[in-house]
Sequence to fold (298 residues):
Amino acid sequence: MKQPLFSGTGVALITPFRRQQETVDFTKLEALIEHIITSGVDYIVALGTTSEAATMTENERSAVQEFIVETVSGRLPIMLGLGGNNTLSLSDTLARTNFDGISGLLSVTPYYNKPNQRGLMAHYRTVAEASPVPVVMYNVPGRTGVNLTAETALAIAAECPNIIGIKEASGNMAQVMELLRNRPNGFRVISGDDALTYPMLTLGADGVISVIANALPKDMATMVHLAMKGELKKALPMHYRMLPLMNAIFEEGNPTGIKSLLETEGMISNVLRLPLVKASKTLTNKLSTLYNEYRGQA
Fold:
């Protein structure tokens, strides 16, 4: 049976930059995409938070999107990250966006404005009408300052057929269970937190949009697939083995930690754009030690 769209392991793809002038390193990006695809993940998320899209120009974002689509070449579904706190501007951007090769939209709740639940519902209603592809909502109150409640998310899902799921990163397991218990048929509940993926899968979640999978794509995909098949006793040791790295990569923010880890693996140069900065020496050494220990356990 064919796996439903945007279930399993999605990778929140980073953007490699060159040390000189901090331009996009398309050679490293291609190598990373190929590594991820051959490792058995289920889809790729382009231009999400982890990509540092917020610090790219519009031309850079378009070039990165086009490059990812061309490199993936239909081998995996691609979810495009595109959100904002100006609903009318976002609607206009959606109308101008090229969705060739894009299977779905990941759209974060409006940030900074702190809309109430009625405002969030009206926002997503507008996004659903404007998007030519299925929409996955993204709830991450630690970044946005507003929580999309389970009640509101389920009301949006019931009203808007084009909204097919939610990436849930509130860290509130009671909220996760309310979503899972009351969701309409086919509505995806996707973990937005690597460390909570295993427990969410045991409750019936549909997978993860993962940061650690940039560095450990095969292991993360295997763990998720085992858990989704009900092979929890096989998946649990993999979860615990990855857990120290999952936690450590977020100690100084994202993608600070994952870029440091990818440099340790030799995949990229560890370059971020301001206001983000490289991991401290303390964290860099910690990640290197944890990674070596992780590989030693293989």
About this structure: The beta strands are 8-12, 43-46, 78-81, 104-108, 135-139, 163-168, 188-191, 207-210. Residues 232-248 form the longest helix (17 residues). The CA atoms of residues 105 and 293 lie 37 Å apart.
